[in-house]
């Protein structure tokens, strides 16, 4: 097999890979996340989001928030790409966001259903005293 000189994807070849090779490659890609070190949550205060880079690729899981007052944030939305769901990635984002709220002594509206679920399942007093109902 020779690599296509026109391809922008280095793994792509001029010939079709056997189906078993494709399935094995997909399975390997799915398992990379599990084999890596613990997930690292990044906080971009300027863009008002927490994110996790998935497998070093352009795929990211994100949690978005907005300031709705000087000391009040709205935790609005959590999104994990479908291929990575069910691996507790959103849980890491939710924890980072709630820890941020506590550390900055903010109040939080929990618009995102997942954050509501996270706080309900992790009813730490230091979280609960910062949640607006």
**Succession of helices and strands:** HEEEEHEHH
- Tell me the overall shape: globular
Tell me the Rg in angstroms. 19 Å
Strand line-up in the sheet with most strands:
1-2-3-4-5
DSSP summary: helix tally: 4
**Straight-line distance between termini:** 61 Å
User: Which spans have pLDDT < 50 for at least 5 consecutive residues?
Assistant: 1-17, 20-32
Give the integer mean of the pLDDT values. Answer: 82
The helical percent reads 25-40%
Which secondary-structure class do the elements indicate? alpha+beta
Query: How much of the sequence is in beta strands?
Result: 15-25%
Main sheet attributes: strand count, strand direction, barrel closure: 5 strands, mixed
DSSP summary, beta strand count:
5
Can you lay out the helices and strands and say which pair or pack?
Layout: H1 19-35, E1 42-44, E2 49-53, E3 60-69, E4 72-79, H2 89-103, E5 107-110, H3 113-121, H4 125-128
Parallel strand pairs: 4-5
Antiparallel strand pairs: 1-2, 2-3, 3-4
What does this structure look like?
By secondary structure, this protein is an alpha+beta fold. Helix content is 34%, strand content 23%. The protein contains four helices and five strands. It has helices at residues 19-35, 89-103, 113-121, 125-128, and strands at 42-44, 49-53, 60-69, 72-79, 107-110. Strands 1-2-3-4-5 form a five-stranded mixed sheet. β3 and β4 (72-79) form a beta hairpin. α2 packs across α3. The N and C termini lie far apart (61 Å). 18% of the residues are buried. The model is unreliable at 1-17 and 20-32 (pLDDT under 50).
